[in-house]
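# nightly structure sweep
# worker-07 picked up a monomer target from the shared queue
# config: single-sequence mode, recycle default, output format = C-alpha cells
# input follows
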Amino acid sequence: MPPRRLVPDYFTLALLATVALASLLPCRGEGARVFGVITDAAIALLFFLHGAKLPGAAIMQGMTHWRLHLTVFASTFVLFPLLGLAMQPLGHVLLTPQLYLGLLFVCMLPSTVQSSIAFTSIAGGNVPAAVVSASMSNLLGIVLTPLLTGLLLSAHGGVSWHGVLDIVSQLLLPFVLGHVARRWIGGFVDRHRPLLGVTDRGTILLVVYSAFSAAVVGGIWRDTPVLSLFATAALCLLLLALVMPTLTWTARRLGFARADEITIVFCGSKKSMASGIPMAKILFAGQLGGLGALVLPLMMFHQLQLMVCAVVARRYAAQATTIAGDADRLDAD
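# output follows
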C-alpha cells in the first residue's frame, strides 16, 4: 500500500482539529446551550436533505434484489450487535464503561452511503445495488438503531426510552418531510449534491465540538486511560476483521455473483458517522458529559473502515484484472 494511503483525509484532520479546539477552548454555560440549539437545527436540516435526496424509485427497486439487501441488513443490524455483545467481557476489562457503550452503539448504526458506493465501484461490484442497499440501510436505521439502542443499551444504563422517542421528532419527521418535499426540491438537491456533503460534515463537526466541550468540562482526558483508547481502536479493528471475512464466506455460500459479493462486503461492513453522531447526541442527551467518550469509538471505526476497505477494494480490483487477463489468454489459445 502506498504511504500516502496512510495519510488521513481532510475530514479526519478536521475532526482531530475540532477535538483539539474543544479540549483547549470548550463551550460552556449559556454559549453551550445556544450552540446546542444551532446543532439541533443543523441535524434536522441534515435529515431533511437526506429525505429529499432519496428517490421513491430507489425504495421500490430495493424490493427486487431482496436477497442481497437482506444479507446486508442482517450484517448491519444483527451480526454487528451480536459481536458487540460478545465483546462485553473484553470491553469491561480493557475499556471504560463509556467507551464500551460507544463501541456497542457503533454496532447498531446503519451503513454508510457515499463510501459504500465508492468502494463498491472501485472493486468492480454491483453499484446500483450498493446505492439502493446503503440508502435503504440508512432509512431503516432511523427506526432500527434507536430501537436496538433502547433494547441493548438501556440494560447497561446507557440510554433512556425517552431519547429513542426523540428520534421520531428530530430525525424521522424531518426525513419524511424532506422525502415528501422531493417533488418540489428534488431537482435542486440532485444538482447540488456537494451541498449535502457539506451539511453532513458540518453537522458532524458541530456535534463533535459540542460533545467534546461537555466531555472536557466533565474531565474526559483525566478519566480516560490512554491504554483504553488503544484498546478501543484494537476492538474496532477486530470487528472489521470478523465481519468482512464472514460476509465474504456467506455471500459465496449463498451463491451470489462476484459483483454482488463485493456489494455485500462493503455495504454490510460499514457504519455511518453521518447518521451515528447526530443520533448519539439525541439518544444520550441526558449524559452530555459522557458523550465525547461515547462517540470516540465511532470516530475510530470510521477511519479504520476507510483504510481497511481501501486495501480490500484494490485487492478485488486487482483480482478482476487478473481474471480478465486469464480469460483473454484462454480466448487467444
